[in-house]
Amino acid sequence: MTSVVVKDVSLSFGAYDVLKQLNLDVPEGEFLVLLGPSGCGKSTLLNCIAGLLDVSDGQIFIKGKNVTWEEPKDRGIGMVFQSYALYPQMTVEGNLSFGLKTAGMARDEISTRVARASEILQIEPLLKRKPAALSGGQRQRVAIGRALVRDVDVFLFDEPLSNLDAKLRSELRVEIKRLHQKLANTMIYVTHDQIEAMTLADRIAVMKGGVIQQLDAPQVIYNKPVNRFVAGFLGSPG
Ligand code: ADP
Ligand code: MG
């Protein structure tokens, strides 16, 4: 069963074509990495899947349903950004529960979900703190927690580790991998970092200029790049 399908999607800003008839099929439960240099259209593609940007042409399906014109909140996706986008005036607990409250969920259900997410992400001791009192890594865990409590089908990550130092980056990378193994849901993860892509991905889609150049398992991309761009970008031998 496919989880996310992007079908012939194009997106232009004025005369500038950012995505060019792009196609992508992500099976249920896959960890797919979108890898490519800055400006190649990774965030734009993710925002189209999330419904934060309207496509100029083409369609997006999630779990077989055409969501091209659905509101972001109705797509069953959770998005984690590079900047944590937490509410500064709320505690961690408030940040985790806010979306559920506004959706009218019962109190008990909210507490259960917040408890489960904070256990999985090991942020229980932080629940009463405000974002300003957290480290970058802790904030990013809370940002992931906000997607987790919503029990979404698909996680979208846009360079979630770029603002962290090298040590925290590798720690959180392991954490995200563990989360994927535990939840077994679909994750689409944007990065320009080859090491992140190689260590996290079931498959990597290498993008350049609004087009996917190659979509394969990390080892295949590395050992059998389809063109010089992919080889150069991955640092493949030969
Ligand atoms: P990436 O995430 O791969 O770095 P983006 O998807 O953010 O790339 O951007 C792709 C291209 O589209 C870039 O050249 C960027 O300047 C351009 N772009 C992004 N958003 C807008 C916008 N709102 N208006 C005009 N151009 C944009
Ligand atoms: Mg980007």
Automatic annotation (TrEMBL):
Enumerate the spans annotated as ABC transporter domain. Answer: 4-234
Q: How does it sit in the membrane?
A: Peripheral membrane protein
- State whether keyword Hydrolase applies: no
Locations listed in the record: Cell inner membrane
Name the UniProt key words of this record, in alphabetical order: ATP-binding, Nucleotide-binding, Sugar transport, Transport
Instruction: Give GO BP annotations, semicolon-separated.
Output: carbohydrate transport
Superkingdom classification of source:
Bacteria
* Principal location listed in the UniProt entry: membrane
A cellular component term from Gene Ontology for this protein is: ATP-binding cassette (ABC) transporter complex, substrate-binding subunit-containing
Q: Name one GO molecular function term.
A: ATP binding
Tell me if Endoplasmic reticulum is a UniProt keyword of this record: no
Identify its protein family.
Belongs to the ABC transporter superfamily.
Q: What is this protein called?
A: ABC transporter ATP-binding protein
Gene source species: Aminobacter carboxidus
Q: Which residues of the full protein are shown?
A: 1 to 238 of 360
